[in-house]
Automatic annotation (TrEMBL), chain A:
Cellular component annotations (GO), alphabetically ordered: spliceosomal complex; U4/U6 x U5 tri-snRNP complex; U6 snRNP
Function per UniProt: Plays role in pre-mRNA splicing as component of the U4/U6-U5 tri-snRNP complex that is involved in spliceosome assembly, and as component of the precatalytic spliceosome (spliceosome B complex). The heptameric LSM2-8 complex binds specifically to the 3'-terminal U-tract of U6 snRNA.
Protein family: Belongs to the snRNP Sm proteins family.
Listed GO biological process terms: mRNA splicing, via spliceosome
CDD domains according to UniProt: LSm8
Protein name: U6 snRNA-associated Sm-like protein LSm8
PANTHER family reported for this sequence: LSM1, U6 SNRNA-ASSOCIATED SM-LIKE PROTEIN LSM8
One Pfam entry name: LSM
SMART domains reported in the protein's UniProt record: Sm
Gene3D superfamilies linked to this entry: 2.30.30.100
Keywords: mRNA processing, mRNA splicing, Nucleus, Ribonucleoprotein, RNA-binding, Spliceosome
Assembly with partners or alone: LSm subunits form a heteromer with a doughnut shape.
Automatic annotation (TrEMBL), chain B:
Task of the protein: Binds specifically to the 3'-terminal U-tract of U6 snRNA.
Span of domain Sm: 2-76
Subcellular location(s) per record: Nucleus
MF GO annotations: RNA binding
Gene3D superfamilies: 2.30.30.100
This protein's name: U6 snRNA-associated Sm-like protein LSm2
Provenance organism: Discostella pseudostelligera
TrEMBL record, chain C:
Domain of life: Eukaryota
Name of the protein in its database record: Sm domain-containing protein
InterPro entries, sorted: Lsm3, LSM_dom_sf, Sm, Sm-like_LSM3, Sm_dom_euk/arc
Pfam families: LSM
GO molecular function: RNA binding
PANTHER family: U6 SNRNA-ASSOCIATED SM-LIKE PROTEIN LSM3
Entry annotated with the keyword Nucleus: yes
Statement: the UniProt record of this protein carries the keyword Glycoprotein: no
Length: 113, 104, 89
């Protein structure tokens, strides 16, 4: 019954942080406070001026307090929007389904302690 | 533990979770824990035009601390039972346990 | 013994006014609460007040939006104050 992250261990996950950033990585470990170990991670940076940009982050720990949502998959369902920018030469993973267009950034979570 | 028990009675139901950053996610309540962390299945974002980057979310673990509201279908809630459980849990003498389950 | 939560206990099954952070106000019937002030309300009307500054005149424009929700769980940490039974509305 408890909400656990066990089924997503060693799988790709997307994390929305409290400051509104989206980070994709492989869930290497976690604890009760949602402190997370993510490896091979990158941030998906969205803005209204340019299509999504990936920023490589590598291996790190996210402190649980700063986690808002953890979702399975490096991103699954396809989504329409602006056409994919022609940057497919990296061609790997399931990124084709990612929303790569422009988007207003997500607001940060206010009053979170 | 009152709301933990309450949300357990809503497992399998459709709910809308509004976060403190105004994002609203709808989905089927899969599980809840004592911190009121919530796991939703088949998630959809309300206002997809504003949040296209979140349309790809499918199954979500939502940290209890970032929740502002959870909208529930009124017909999924037994308000009498809930009020009785609330009165007991907050009664001056004793702090209760999982009262909602006892009554079932 | 008159603890603050005793007052809220007396408001069960009554319509209450709840003021929240970020200029949000709720009016609804109270069905449940706990020591964190997590709550369940029904027939809720939420009012959100926003103030914007007019770019040219610098005047403050106050606008109120309301919406109705049938049944709502409210997380206690956003609640600023709770006012027991409403006579009005």
């Amino acid at each position: 019954m408890a909400s656990t992250l066990s089924e997503w261990k060693s799988k790709p996950v997307t994390v929305l942080t409290c400051d509104g950033r989206l980070i994709v990585g492989t869930l290497k470990g976690y604890d009760q406070l949602q402190n997370l170990i993510l490896c091979k991670s990158y941030e998906k940076v969205y803005s209204v001026d340019s299509p999504m940009e990936k920023v490589e982050l590598g291996l790190f720990v996210v402190r649980g307090d700063n986690v808002a949502i953890i979702s399975d998959g490096g991103c699954g369902k396809s989504s329409s929007g602006e056409n994919n920018n022609g940057n497919s030469d990296e061609g790997k993973e399931e990124e084709i389904d990612d929303y790569v267009g422009r988007a207003e950034p997500i607001m940060e979570i206010s009053g979170n302690r | 533990m009152l709301f933990y028990s309450f949300f357990k009675t809503l497992v399998g139901k459709e709910v809308a979770v509004e976060l403190k950053n105004d994002v609203i996610l709808t989905g089927t309540l899969h599980s809840v824990d004592q911190y009121l962390n919530i796991k939703l299945l088949t998630v959809n974002v309300v206002n997809q035009d504003r949040y296209p980057q979140l349309t790809s979310l499918k199954n979500c673990f939502i940290r209890g601390s970032v929740v502002r509201y959870v909208q529930i279908d009124p017909k999924d809630v037994d308000t009498e039972l809930l009020q009785d459980a609330t009165r007991k849990e907050n009664s001056p003498q004793v702090g209760g346990g999982a009262l909602m389950e006892d009554k079932k | 013994m008159e603890e603050p939560l005793d007052l809220i206990r007396l408001s069960i099954d009554e319509r209450v006014y709840v003021k929240c952070r970020n200029d949000r106000e709720l009016r609804g019937r109270l069905h449940a609460y706990d020591q964190h002030l997590n709550m369940v309300l029904s027939d809720v009307e939420e009012t959100i007040t926003t103030t914007e500054e007019d770019e040219e005149t610098g005047e403050e424009i106050v606008s109120k939006k309301t919406r109705s929700v049938g049944m709502l769980f409210v997380r206690g940490d956003i609640i600023v104050l709770v006012s027991p039974p409403l006579r009005t509305s």
